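Amino Acid Chain and Its Fold in Token Form
===========================================
What this section holds: a protein sequence and its matching fold, both as plain text.
Structure line: whole-number tokens from a learned vocabulary of local backbone shapes, matched to residues.
Purpose: to set a sequence beside its fold so the mapping can be learned.
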Amino acid sequence: MTNVYNNILELIGNTPMVRLNTVVKDIPAQVFAKLESCNPGHSTKDRIALHIIENAEKQGILKSDSVIVETTSGNTGFSVAMVSIVKGYKCILAVSDKTKPEKIAYLKALGAQVYICPANVPADDPRSYYEVAKRIAAETPNSVYINQYFNELNIDAHYKTTGPEIWEQTEGKVTHLFACTGTGGTLSGSAKFLKEKNPDIKIIGVDALGSILKSYHETGEIHKEDIRPYQIEGMGKNLIPSALLFDKIDEFVRVNDEMSAYRTREIALKEAIMGGYTTGAVTQGFIQYANSHPFKESDVVVLIFPDHGSRYITKVYSDQWMAEQGFINNCVHNYDEVFKTEYVK
């Protein structure tokens, strides 16, 4: 039999790359999106969940009655829960209250026990989802804490898979790589591999307005005044993850909630790619970067689209949510009429 697999986990990786034809048509470069939504868990986090859990199995850390604990904004939780089901482990997840109800429902459908924690508290606050996950892991017998923010295997997963895939898919012609930074593993692992192949490849991290990563990269110091609430899930941080290799990143660009939201919807409307909020963010980051860094027609740019838009239907794809944020009234692209729904009476 062909194209038949033993379980869902064998579908992880080897995601396709597709040319962007409309959204970036004014930029003289070949621009490709790596569609991580084509992983079975619909995000790039499938890669690290499988890699970290299988590594723990090889080391004998995980037993048949083990409990896997993790901090997540959604995607890592989906992936950890999916891998846990196939491998027979219990899964406990700590998420922030920025996580939409449909994501919580998704996690529960995959058998995860979920703790919802306040997002707008310091990382070292005992109520933060980082500290809650640590406490649960410490109090739960036979538990293993994935700890994606400070786990080198997060980087290693992408060094071994995502980076080589990008190199092979572009036949070594990639000149620029853009990716959103949260834990930093996706960009760091990919960048580490690609820089070894060609140190001239430019690696650009996309950070959120309200996060400290860009300023930390530029100054080596944490600027607490940068920290403010923002809506984009899964990118930016109010702490410095060790899974983010700043020395592999040439530059950061910072994007805001509003333009990232419009860009997410534009990609769906014009490229027929239903990406998550970070899909719009990374594309907005590339467009902003291109405004001050001229590209050539020979440049081959890869944007990592981390996840699928189905997880944001009541958020960035919702007219009501957009209006609640004040985005529709302030839309600089005048997409208001395109995105409005007409009701027949």
About this structure: The mean pLDDT is 92. The longest strand covers residues 90-96.
